[in-house]
Amino acid sequence: MDIMLEILKGIGSLFLQPAFYVSILIVIIAGFSRIKAERKSFHVGIYSPWQELKGFFGLGIIFGLVISVVMFFIGFTLTIGWIAIFNVVLIVLLLIGLFRMTSTAYTIGIASLVYYAAYYFDWQLAPFEDKMLPISNLYIDNFMIAIVFVLALLLAVEAFLIQFSGANNASPMLRKSGRGKLIGAFQLRRLWLLPLVCFIPGHGFAAIFDWWPIFQIGNQTFSLMILPVVIGFQQQVQTQLPEQATHKIAVKVTSLAIMIALIGVGSIVMPVLSLVAFVVAIVGRFWISYRHRSDEKRASFKFTPQPEGIMILGSRENTPGSRMEISAGEMILEANGKPVTNREELYEALNENRAYCKLKVRDNNGEPRIVQTAIHEEDSFELGLFMVEAK
To answer: Which CATH number fits domain 310-388: 3.40.50.450, 2.30.42.10, 2.60.120.460, 3.20.20.30?
Structure first.
């Protein structure tokens, strides 16, 4: 009964951490901000304003539970002081950089460096310090090494999330280039919640196994707590397809995760390398984002008005455009047998047969294909396509 009570308290601890609520607030604001941007570009909202919130409570939760099981069996523990610092760092980064600055490389890396500084300079973390285990008595080297491996694991998860859901429902937009030319682009913006079940030294949850915990602190008991780890991702894509961009970034983040894990192995022999791992994670993740932005500025724009057809950024759900599966980057060359180069010519050609639509499209491989669909009475006059046209 006592154990069940501690488990319920641990679940409730998630709702006592301010970073959890700030994350939700940022996600909600981002959803309505995106709707505003979509309407500015296309006079219509494309995706639900709650899309970001659904993603927040999506795939990341599964990874959080899996990692929690791993942490349980290796006997990993955190301290209440580190958790408090982590909450502060996460909130500050969310407010300063929104989704872009909430990679675990930043949140966990900075929080761990600050925590080590508190140990080194003997800062007082009261009231966020366990009286039974003051920071000065902590085996700080072992603690830092363990966090390095957790960080490497979380970076690998971040790469997976970027690869497989970072480009989902990418928000199209129209903007002007530095030369005043109208171009199409995509805003990739995601925030995933990974609730990590962890144990902290203190009264409450008694150790069950002889090998528990990894830090040798005698007969110390533990309390259950859920840490709201948040992984953020934000990039603008205008020179390639969103899926191509997320794949490249995911590969680089995976490489960074492997590098951090290798440094973690070295830190077992030379503990100071654990601090190097945090610095490398922070600098490396910043460099990945910086290189993406630099490459996007140097490369040629992909989504621009074309003289021989109409460039498409995508289509709304449940419209003739979505039924024909016209994708971003494809170009409409003909409509009902007539060449088209702008919206007016497209709908003039379609107006000759309001019950049927047949388009010649050039795909992203440069190959032509024919797509067609019946236009039902319940369909609006628009095909639901987002076009990049010269103004």
So the answer is: 2.30.42.10
